[in-house]
Amino acid sequence: MKMSDDMSDLDRMLHAARAGRDDLPEALAQRMLADAAGVQASLARPAARPAAVAQDAWRGLLAALGGWRGMGGLATACAAGVWIGVAPPEFLPDPAQLVLGLESETETLGFYDLADFISEEG
Amino acid sequence: MDGRASTDGPAQAAGPADEALLALFAQGDPRAARLLTERLGPRAFSVALRVLGNRAEAEDVAQEAMLRLWRTAPDWQAGRARVSTWLYRVVLNLCLDRKRRAKAVDLDAVPEPPDTAPPALEVLQQAARVDALQAALMHLPDRQRQAVVLRHIEELSNPEIAEIMGIGVEAVESLTARGKRALAGHLAGQRAALGYEDER
């Protein structure tokens, strides 16, 4: 038997195999289409995006603080607190003395007095 | 179903390109899903069947490959690759995964048409030849079998096979040539049984 005969037979077998390559079992085709429909349905209702989730969280916080009016009051109070801390009005007690009164034990330990530092700098 | 009517590439004859259909699918067009299934489903199944040699497993692989195609549709980048090339690559990877998981190959599960009527001798002989070819294919190393199936059954070009398999064109030529010689060797003793002696 010649190699060319074998190749010729093989070519005919490959030709026969090609004849059946377009067959798709109907049940398999239906399963593929069902998968496609499922994916299309999930694409039609996309999951909440992270940005949208974050936006919802901020809206919730804003509502809990009383809306924009509440947020405005809160911001004003914060700004006033910072300003009072930086430049306290005359009628307010010296915070250093308040601290000294509360932490008198520090003297017994031999530490420097906080009021000395403040008075030297001021 | 006729899977060869219209596909991406030179064979594109009628209807929108696979890539355009994929975009329509992502927009929710159900007709696009049907057309893509008709075009690409048979290809996925055919390659899986020839590479795995097991009908049930080939159906699972083809369905999984198509499911991955549906899922990737919204993110498909135009011009990245031909849809059919991408699908062949997914099918071959899924086949390799299966073969790695189960080394033993069930040759008995290769095509058995559920036809109850007594088929004509010619049809029987044709089926016997395809079965013999499949059995011989299963003796080839995985890469040789993939290359032979893509070249001689799917009739893809060597450059496309090279792209699918991630190798050079020369390597494809070498794989298909060696594969074909090995197939001929496996089938050499079966000429009489397959009716080739009578045809000469």
TrEMBL record, chain A:
It comes from the Bacteria. This is Dihydroorotate dehydrogenase.
TrEMBL record, chain B:
GO terms for molecular function: DNA binding; sigma factor activity. It comes from the Bacteria. Pfam families: Sigma70_r2, Sigma70_r4_2. Residues 132-183 form the RNA polymerase sigma factor 70 region 4 type domain. Residues 37-103 form the RNA polymerase sigma-70 region domain. Keywords: DNA-binding, Sigma factor, Transcription, Transcription regulation. Signal peptide: none annotated. The keyword DNA-binding applies. The keyword Transcription regulation applies. This is RNA polymerase sigma factor. Belongs to the sigma-70 factor family. ECF subfamily. Transmembrane segments: none annotated. One of its GO terms (biological process) is DNA-templated transcription initiation.
